[in-house]
Amino acid sequence: MSILFSALVAVFVGFAASIAVILSAAQAMGASPAQTVSWVAALAIGTGLPSLWLSWRYRQPMICAWSTPGAALIAAASGFDLAAGIGAFLLAALLMMVTSAFGPLGRLIERIPMPIASAMLAGVIFRFVVAVFDEMRVSPGLVLPLLAIFFVARLVSPFLGVIAALAAGIAISFAGGLAHWPAGPIAWTSLEIVTPRLDMAAMLGIGVPLYLVTMAAQNLPGFAVLRAAGYQPPTAPILLATGLASLVTAPFGAHMSNLAAISASICTGPDTHPDPAQRWKAGMIYGVCYLAIAGCAGLLIALLLALPKALIVTVAGLGLLGSFTGALGQAMSADRERLAAAVAFAVAASSLSLFGVGSAFWSLVAGLAVLTLDAVAGRLRSRS
Fold first, then answer.
1. Within a 10 A sphere around the Cβ of 359, how many other Cβ atoms?
2. How many other C-beta atoms can be found within 10 angstroms of the C-beta atom of residue 309?
3. Under a CB-based contact definition with an 8 Å cutoff, are residues 337 and 155 in contact?
4. Which of 19, 140, 246, 342 is the most buried (most CB within 10 A)?
5. Residue of 148, 43, 59, 132 whose CA lies nearest to 93
């Protein structure tokens, strides 16, 4: 029963804490309602199948997820349609698969200073956190109670805050007449193929940062969680499986599958099972649950779209608050790299767009450029 309970909690936490960000990303890409359902269904398939295969094959709790920071990156982009976005998703998936086959590329990515990568992520997420307080000005009667519930609930459990806020928001919205159930029939689920378009600006502004964010903010912490629990995860097969899942599901709208970190921590500890050799079963149950979500994605999206915008924005911002805190802390952790990280954060948080390429890419360029200048100046001073 503890294996079942851990898997169900991991599914609920992963889905409830990030689905609002996925909806924001789909809206930013101009996805239709049917394409939004397809996006979520494909993400659930890309999460469930690798979890099932890797957990069964390696007898470890291989908990996969979709890239929530990646979705925030997509939602912050502007000027791209879904066809261009899918072209960028395919590039990110291919880069992940190349990383699994070509070790030096993975080592090169690992050499990107963590403060710079974290500053880029913090800058992207910053907009969503600030949006919570922008919505408070418009809908204080809804946002203020949700903030209070979130901060009280998280005192009990870090995983409980967003779930409690979402549940309370749904109840308040329907009780107060703020929610409006869509008219007409609702499809259980659907998968809709969108022909990708290879747009260089989208590939540089979304595809490359999506790959980097997924590696730095999802895969590397995911490997760390498994190793901390006493497992030796096979790096290359995991990257290949999640990259392949991303490649196959991208034409249906899914942006990126990866190894989970927060959800994985729920299924890898002794609370799941005292025997580490038995915890892989939680990964199997987790995968089956996500396939069930894929089967009813239309109903879940219909429920969420019936809710007021203030609730979706608030839940998305609160769901990313933990990631923002961690990324900002890592960005400012090293004195030597703090200025470069601050520049990268400011660029990522801005609405900068050069040559059609968004701020996430340029934040990396700016941060690395400042870091390089500091290093050169330091060498010159030491010689003199």
1. 27
2. 12
3. no
4. 246
5. 43
Angle 34-39-45 from CA coordinates, rounded to 5°: 125
Token pair, residue 374, equals 């500091």
Burial 38-48 (b: 16+ CB within 10 A, else e): bbbbbbbbbbb
Q: Name the token pair of 278.
A: 């038995």
- What span, in angstroms and rounded, lies between the C-alpha atoms of 46 and 53? 11
Residue 252 CA: distances (Å) to CA of 21, 159, 241: 18, 30, 18
Half-sphere exposure of 313 (CA within 13 A, CB side): 21
Per residue in 275-321, pLDDT tens? 889 999 999 999 999 999 999 999 888 887 788 888 878 887 887 78
- Total-model pTM: 0.78
> Is-contact 363 137, C-beta < 8 A?
no
pLDDT (tens digit per residue) in 232-262: 888 889 999 999 999 999 999 999 999 987 6
Task: Name the residue with tokens 């967003």.
Answer: 162
